[in-house]
Model the fold of this input.
Amino acid sequence: MGRYILRRLLSVIPTLIGVTLVIFLFQRLIPGDPAVAMLGEHANAENVARIREQFGLDKPAFLDRDALAEGDLPGFFDSQYVRYFGRLLQFDLGESIHRRIPIAETLKERFPATVELSLLAMSIALVVGIPIGILSASRRNSFLDGATMIGSLVGVSVPIFWLGIMEIMFFAVIMKWLPSGSRLSSGIVIKPITNLLLLDSLLTGNWVGFKDAFLHILMPAISLATIPTAIITRMTRSSMLDVLQEDYIRTASAKGLSERIVLFRHALKNAFLPVITIIGIQAGTLLAGAVLTETIFSWPGIGKWVYDSILGRDYPIVQGVTLLIAIIFLVVNLLVDLSYALLDPRISYE
Amino acid sequence: MKRNTFYTLFALLIMASMLLAACASPSEPAATQAPGETEPPVVPAETKDTFIFGRGADSVQLDPALVTDGESFRVTGQVLDSLYAFEQGTTNPVPSLAECTPNADASVWSCKLREGVKFHDGTDFNADAVIFNFERWRFTDNPYHYPSQVFEYYEAMWGGFDDASLITAVNKIDDLNVEFVLSTPMAPFLANLAMDMFAISSPAAIQAAGEAYGTPTGGCVGTGPYKFVSWQEGTEIKLVANEDYWGEKPKIKNIIIRVIPDDSARFLALQAGDIDALEQAVVEDLATAEADKNLQVLTRPALNTSYLAFNFKIKEFQDIKVREAVAHAIDKQGLISNFFGKYGTVATNFLPPLLLGHNPDIQDWTYDPELSKSLLAEAGFPDGLSEVTVAEDVTDADGNVLYTAGQKIPLRLYYMPVTRFYFPAAKEVGEGMAANLNAAGFKVELYLEGDWPTYLGGRRNGTLMGLYLLGWGGDNGDPDNFLGYFYATGAEPIKREGWYQNADLAAILQEAVTLPDPEARAALYRQAEQMLHDDVARIWLGHNNTPLILSAAVQGYVPQPVGAENYEFVWFSN
Done:
């Protein structure tokens, strides 16, 4: 097991190098110049040239073949990518072209916001999706099953954008129960420890802060949870249905075991493998795909930040955040793979 | 897995959480009675001493000399004062931190500084502070003019840096008197001084923060009615009233400028009472707001112009008859009514009506598709125009040839990929215009060049090969900022302006910017407008009075045509 984990961790390195190459390549394929994006209607040739030079954008993207032809080996490697990779080895993500502040600094504030939202959304998806999926499978073709199937179909199909707006309209404008957006009311302060506001307010015993943060996160978390909840429900149901038709389940029922024990002790564990896989994929998607939810609810996470950075051609931000998301994807997938062994003793990693 | 493994794991999880909590708490006071930071302060919303403005995007930087975006000036305009300011609701520069008088030919300006003014950090506002700011902007070897910083507006408005600067010296006469020496007489001097980007920062604050001045961690320090409190990036900026302000004391204690990126969500937040005012609303929400007694709609006087431009490297556009045919084909009034709504007005000049030099006598082109067809026939296109010819080679920024001379290309109408304050619905206008042109004998291909940076890049390099839509918003309320900025270098073809060339016009504009007498200037600008019209250089489309939506309780909010609005006059009616 230990060797397997080590091997997997080592394999992360070439994957990440691949990721940086791909991000770099695709960004440069998008037409448009960061300097022009930054200067807007006022852009003149001199200013554009100066900004390009300051941020090394006048260097070739990967390698300088012209320099090689002239026998200038250091010049050959003096490219945007090599410079970027060199900084990365020193754990330096660089700074934003537009704001000129270190990306790590902004990431420290924004990433926890996305993590908190994604974790709560995933918790909602698990707490709602798995039990409903199990119940639905155990009462196949019942009214509950039909309602679940229709509900989950709607959940997968509903545009998050529309759902978010409807939530704000009902809960904030009409009922005035919940705030329409942002992470905290003005005037509420929570001492930052992890920057996960719910956790920080609990750790510091700040109940007013906890309540305020909870009311703020509720609508975005429900919006974000909609698709994963629907997918997990459907996956749990279909996986359970497969397992419930196995011989050993019939044997267990024939032995006179209660439905609860058959479902939860015998069926669920075996039905859980595909569900875990889906959860892993969804967890990554949640982190990367919170753009719409964050936009509608003015949630200060990384989704909206990356979106704006792509439009503004702020390359270092896009690179930094994509790399982070790639790392998380890899870690979540590793955890998912490891959890298979816990659920199914027949799976061995040696 | 053994039966009890789940329970063991669960217990471990609980223990881990408790351990985490235990690790975190020693630095804290007793959790239940945590004072200070852990104790939430009283929420000020109930007493309504907080004005919350909702906007679509965050500020880029709070050092106004480094930025060009209105969202940065919205904040710095409250914190920093310039030597001059724009009178409420107009483009007239009026004294703020200084009162200046010119010598006979307006090449030396003597400025008396306001006495007894202090920066928010307690240091004095005086001649040294003014000189520190201007020298920092001007000299590229100044220790506080960092290599990574682009003082773009200084370069644009004052001719350039170092020796290229039109301000050749800022001399200290005494603590409260300075003298600006210009290399050439400059009529818009006071208008330039009033711009938000030339607001005076505290030298001590710049020295202390270094390159971080103006960033979320560095903030900004000026002499304005509000002090900078905090900036949570992408979320909100908080300001608090400056009780020692030299001018009229702010009526509201706290200002929060909050980012709500989505237009609909921003409007819903206003309806829910979470914010008090917003800018940039979709047309449907504007209609809702007008009908809602809890809301009010104000309009910002238009200091912008949208237009349809010709690329003069298209051979056919070099013929004035073809350009006239285009001008008669466009139903401006229809386009404005349909897509700008009631906030737009038809443009006949490049200069909006509120600016000096606007020429009201210009007779606009009539909308007459039949006349267009006959003009096209006279120009040699009796069957209409669907394909055009490249007159000379056109290259990109790196010198690669994109279009070769003689090449035939479809007649394109480039439309902007974004909505701008001067162009509320660019794509829809483009579609309407294409329909107009197609009904008048042209056959245009509606063309999307790429996203906004790509589009602007194409404009800058003169590679939007056809007709293209764009616009301009004024920076300082001076006609030179419109006509001069666009056409003063027109002795040669101006790449950025679709290769338009007009040496006579350029000469007039270069003269107009130096004249101290406003009437004499206005006469020249009116003449320039007439020349542009007679030459059918461009089709001016409209001026847009941008709407703002506010809660009905907000009073004293005066939309400014130029520069940041003054929040110190805002108050709540109940």
Summary: Chain A has a mean pLDDT of 85.
